[in-house]
Amino acid sequence: MLTIAATTQTLEALLGGAVATTQPAAVVSYAEHTTTTYVAKVQHTDLNGTTAVTVLAAPASSTEHVVRGLTISNVDTAAITLTVRLKDTSGSTVYRTLFKATLSVGDTAAYDDDGWYVIDNTGARKGIGATGAQGAQGVQGSQGPQGAQGAQGSQGPQGAKGADGAQGPAGAKGDTGATGAQGADGAQGAQGPQGAKGADGAQGPQGADGAQGPQGAKGDTGPQGADGAQGPQGAKGADGAQGPQGATGAQGPQGATGAQGAQGAAGSGITTLTTKGDLLTHDGSAAVRLGVGTTGYVLKANSSASYGIEWAAESGGGGGTSAPDYMFFFNGII
Fold this sequence. Notes:
Elements: E1 2-4, E2 9-15, E3 25-33, E4 38-46, E5 53-56, E6 64-73, E7 80-88, E8 94-103, E9 108-112, E10 115-119, E11 279-282, E12 287-290, E13 297-301, E14 309-313, H1 323-333
Antiparallel strand pairs: 1-6, 2-5, 2-7, 3-4, 3-6, 6-9, 7-8, 9-10, 11-12, 13-14
């Protein structure tokens, strides 16, 4: 009986080389045994050339897998070399060969309560001849009464050995005895070369895009970050070049002399104007009289003059203020 009782143990099968057309199929009938249950199960799979394939998975914890039957058939068009082995990964990985044989086309490797064997395409076991007919059993003679045992005589000298008699015919085959203990595993054979990689299959069509999921709810607004420190003031840029000075415009024509206003009454304590054309001005301390200028002269501002203004010959230009205008002005402010 073949039993796997650890979670680190599996059964594997592999071939000594690549198949010609078709991979063999492995079928394992086993019982899943615990302390309270005993459940019959089946595991089946295709082999993959020289790549080891697990034909019986490891049991769960506190569980045993008891193999009751295993078959692997050669459905290829050429002979194959089959190896079935135990794999244990409880420490460093160890392989133990359980069965190895060359299967002709149509042969099946099998395991059951009789152990390992090979069946040909007719269903007969290989390596075992047909059982001959059993001969008739002879009649048992009658048994007489047994007399009293006499005294044992002294032992005589050993006689010479007689000639061997002719070998009698082989007796009928007896019933098959109980299966003996499994012998030690033989050394593992060298692994065969890996088969050539098959051509890649054509790429399937791209699936349609899935529908867009709903938009998630808007998250809360995070707190406002603290103001960053103010950066240093940049250096002052260089002053631009001064543009050229524009040309002086032409002097406009002199305006016409306005009409002379009426002379106002003299104020209290103010110097009396005595002559036609006199002006009343201020010298910085008190009001003073500026006599009328020469005909044709114009009144000009001059900060170095005693009164800050003076009569001077006309030097051209226009827009000037006539003497009557100044008189009216000063009379007005005084």
